[in-house]
C-alpha cells in the first residue's frame, strides 16, 4: 500500500520517458506493515509477509497507478499466539476475508511524487486511504543492471471502519492504526 507510493516516487525520479513503465513489486522486499496502541501502554507492530503487485508510471505525463494484493493470513507480529489471534474473527477474519488490496493513483508536485490517492479493501470494505511518500530512490540493480526502485510511504486507517471487532476493545483511538509500506521493484522489460 504505502510502499507502492514510495516505489512510484523512485521510478518517477528517474529520467523521463514518453511511455508508461511497469515495475512488478518484489515480494521478498515489499512488506506492508502497521502499528497501533495496545491498551494505551505500548505499541504493537506487525507486517504482512506475502504481498504482490505492480506500479505503472508514465514519467512524461506525471501519472501512474499502484495495485497491491495482500495476504492477510501472512500476518506476523513475531509472536505465534498474537499471529493466531490476528487471523481470528476478532481481527482480520482471514477465513471469511482471505485477501486485501490497495489500488491508487500517483499524485505529483511538479516532478516529485508526493502521495498516492487510493482505496484500501480490507474485510470486504473499501475506504479511501492517502499514502504520503516519505522516501524513494532508483539505482541500477547491482547484479542485473536493470532499474531498481524502492520507496517508503505511510498513511492511517481506523480498523473499526472496516468492521474489525478488536478495534472496539481499547480506549480513545483504539482502532487508529499507522500503515507503512516499504517496497522495491525492478523495471519490466
Write the layout of secondary structure elements.
Blueprint lengths: L1 H12 L7 E4 L6 E8 L3 E7 L2 E8 L4 E8 L4 E2 L3 H8 L12 E10 L2 E11 L2 E16 L6 E12 L17 E11 L3
Keywords:
eleven-stranded antiparallel sheet, 189 residues, 2 helices, Lipocalin, mainly beta
Written account of the structure:
By secondary structure, the chain is mainly beta. The chain contains two helices and eleven strands, in the order αββββββαβββββ. The protein has one domain: Lipid/polyisoprenoid-binding, YceI-like (Lipocalin, Beta Barrel). The chain has helices at 2-13, 80-87; strands at residues 21-24, 31-38, 42-48, 51-58, 63-70, 75-76, 100-109, 112-122, 125-140, 147-158, 176-186. Strands 1-4-5-7-8-9-10-11-2-3-6 form an eleven-stranded antiparallel sheet. A hairpin with a 6-residue loop joins strand 9 (125-140) and strand 10. The chain is globular, with a radius of gyration of 17 Å. It starts with a helix and ends with a strand. Residues 12-17 have low confidence and may be disordered.
Amino acid at each position: 500500500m504505502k510502499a507502492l507510493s514510495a516505489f512510484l516516487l523512485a521510478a518517477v525520479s528517474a529520467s523521463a520517458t514518453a511511455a508508461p513503465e511497469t515495475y512488478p513489486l518484489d515480494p521478498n522486499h515489499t512488506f506492508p506493515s502497521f502499528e497501533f496502541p495496545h491498551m494505551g501502554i505500548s505499541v504493537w507492530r506487525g507486517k504482512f509477509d506475502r504481498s504482490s503487485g505492480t506500479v505503472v508510471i508514465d514519467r512524461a505525463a506525471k501519472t501512474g497507478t499502484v495495485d497491491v494484493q495482500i495476504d492477510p493470513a501472512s500476518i506476523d507480529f513475531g509472536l505465534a499466539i498474537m499471529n493466531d489471534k490476528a487471523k481470528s474473527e476478532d481481527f482480520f477474519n482471514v477465513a471469511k476475508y482471505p485477501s486485501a488490496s490497495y489500488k491508487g493513483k500517483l499524485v505529483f508536485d511538479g516532478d516529485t511524487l508526493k502521495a498516492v490517492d487510493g482505496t484500501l479493501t480490507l474485510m470486504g470494505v473499501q475506504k479511501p486511504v492517502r499514502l504520503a511518500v516519505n522516501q524513494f530512490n532508483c539505482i541500477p540493480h547491482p547484479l542485473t543492471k536493470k532499474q531498481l526502485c524502492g520507496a517508503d510511504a505511510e498513511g492511517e486507517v481506523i480498523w473499526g471502519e472496516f468492521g474489525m471487532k478488536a478495534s472496539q476493545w481499547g480506549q480513545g483511538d483504539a482502532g487508529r492504526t499507522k500503515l507503512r509500506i516499504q517496497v522495491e521493484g525492478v523495471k519490466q522489460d
